[in-house]
Design a protein that fits this description.
Distance between the termini: 42 Å
Helix content: 25-40%
Order of helices and strands: EEEEEHHHEEEHHH
Number of domains: 2
Radius of gyration: 20 Å
Number of helices: 6
Number of strands: 8
Strand content: 15-25%
Structural class: alpha+beta
Oligomer: single chain
Largest sheet: 5 strands, mixed, barrel
Length: about 240
């Protein structure tokens, strides 16, 4: 069976001597793993199709295999996204985006909203001020985990359901906790951090890029996000704190 898919390369790995496995997030099928035959040979024409963040249209053959489901039979590169490789800082955050998508998604679960969110993030990242890369990345993470169904509860206490008007605490598996329901394992957090995270769900990427945020709040959001993600990611995030 043949498929034509539009996808964004998330990851690649060598397989045997000349082949590669490439992980893509596609519009038509969600995340898939594709075998590219002989692309490690010096004369290979499809090697550029395997570079992370490259946007491609592929012709695939579906296979019956325990190692992979699809083999590439050809295709075209729609966008090399070379602007994401202009400097190391942009490329680092590109890798962060691709890794979080790869680690949070199951294979062959179609979600068009996820595809367009990834595509939009890769478009806006080179246009954003260098000092806003981390903020934009964290906003992307919260938008993406919402699409995955993992949204933390931030408006009311996750244990009693009451309003929080005093100190804020964070239950690493579910969301904010009031002073009355806190446990020893909960983390005390700034009120402003939860309000900024809630804004991430409402603001456009352009609006996120002009948010004014102090370093302490940004660092706290980064720390809370990492702790929360551990509930849903079972492999180390290699790029998160780089």
């Amino acid at each position: 069976m043949y498929y034509i898919v539009n996808g964004i390369v998330l990851n690649k790995m060598d397989y045997l001597e000349y082949d590669k496995f490439v992980v893509l997030y596609t519009l038509e099928l969600g995340k898939i793993r594709v075998l590219f035959k002989s692309v490690n040979k010096p004369t290979a024409k499809l090697i550029s199709f395997t570079e992370p963040a490259t946007e491609v249209e592929l012709q695939l053959v579906k296979l019956k295999s325990s190692d992979y489901m699809f083999k590439c039979a050809g295709g075209t590169v729609k966008n090399y996204n070379n602007s994401l490789r202009n400097n190391t800082e942009i490329y680092l955050y590109t890798c962060k985006v691709l890794e979080i998508v790869d680690k949070l998604t199951l294979e062959v679960v179609k979600d068009e909203q996820k595809y367009f969110l990834i595509k939009r993030m890769l478009e806006i990242l080179p246009l954003c001020d260098v000092n806003k890369y981390k903020l934009l990345y964290l906003a992307f993470v919260y938008r993406f985990i919402k699409l995955c169904g993992y949204t933390p509860k931030l408006d009311k206490c996750v244990r009693c359901g009451g309003e929080i008007n005093e100190e804020y605490f964070f239950d690493s598996s579910s969301g904010v906790v009031c002073n009355r329901c806190k446990k020893a394992s909960d983390i005390k957090i700034f009120y402003n951090a939860t309000k900024i995270i809630q804004k991430f769900y409402k603001l456009t990427a352009e609006q996120v890029c002009i948010l004014q945020l102090d370093k302490n709040t940004l660092d706290e959001i980064e720390k809370l996000t990492f702790i929360y993600l551990q509930n849903y990611i079972y492999k180390p995030l290699l790029t998160y704190y780089l």
